[in-house]
Design brief:
Layout (H helix, E strand, L loop, with lengths): L1 E13 L28 E5 L5 H12 L3 H5 L6 H13 L9 E5 L7 E12 L2 E9 L8 H15 L4 E7 L3 H9 L3 E12 L10
Parallel strand pairs: 5-6
Antiparallel strand pairs: 1-6, 1-7, 2-3, 3-4, 4-5
Helix pairs in contact: 1-3
Bound molecules: coenzyme A (COA).
């Protein structure tokens, strides 16, 4: 078994600052209080409910199983691992239910598809930390990822928090770009040592 270091950025955004950006309409970081981020037609936000914990786990699994973070955090590549992770997040004393959401698509029960998931916790004073944001592959590129992060940031403001924080694997360009557009900036760099069962995947220096 080989090991490899994966470079990760801690990124943070100031929740008090209002910025302009080139985001699609309804996906701006400067939403006025009470205004929810817009979703494309047919999609809707579903608020946290303990009965939906397994839906979060399954949606997380479908979003992460083929992605770099399933290598960095092997639990994300297994349904049981995602279930365990969801129970851990839910059990944290700083779990923030109002910043944890699903996105569903479909107007009838037959059509219902779970498309995206996000959870958040507060473990440092005044800082909301996004745990995992994931959108299933068939529904990417429509603004759902941005809307989930904005929905969590809106809740952070409603909780009275000052900063939003998250960690992202540097190789995950799409996620890094998304967070950057939403006002997150790198605050520190960390390295995660991972045991790789197969020949090492190269760590791109950046
Ligand atoms: C990262 C991730 C959450 C982004 O989700 P997404 O729904 O595709 O994100 P968005 O649609 O909001 O933004 C992504 C892109 O779509 C574009 N976009 C947004 N709304 C759009 C629309 N209405 N029409 C076309 N494109 C749109 C954005 O400009 C952005 O462009 P880019 O491809 O040049 O970056 C998703 O790729 C994912 O789940 N990845 C796997 C899990 C993961 O790595 N999560 C992050 C862990 S830190």
């Amino acid at each position: 078994m080989e090991s490899s270091y994966f470079k990760r950025f801690r990124m943070e955004a100031d929740l008090a600052v209002r910025r302009q950006s080139g985001l699609p309409s309804g996906c701006r970081p400067d939403l006025p209080p009470g205004c929810r981020p817009g979703l494309p037609s047919g999609y809707r936000f579903v608020a946290w409910n303990d009965a939906l914990i397994d839906v979060h786990a399954r949606t997380k699994y479908r979003a992460f199983r083929d992605e770099i973070d399933a290598t960095v955090f092997p639990c994300l590549g297994e349904l049981e691992g995602c279930r365990r992770l969801m129970r851990e997040i839910r059990g944290k004393s700083g779990f923030l239910p109002h910043a944890s959401w699903l996105i569903a698509w479909g107007r009838s029960p037959e059509e219902l598809t779970w498309c995206g998931t996000i959870q958040a916790v507060c473990e440092r004073p005044m800082v909301g930390m996004i745990q995992n944001v994931g959108v299933v592959p068939e529904h990417r590129g429509r603004g759902l990822g941005a809307a989930l992060v904005q929905q969590a940031m809106l809740a952070f403001r409603e909780y009275g928090l000052r900063r939003a924080s998250l960690e992202v694997t540097v190789q995950n360009d799409r996620a890094v770009d998304l967070y950057h557009r939403l006002g997150f900036r790198r605050s520190r760099t960390v390295y995660k040592l991972v045991d790789l069962p197969t020949p090492a995947i190269g760590v791109a220096a950046r």
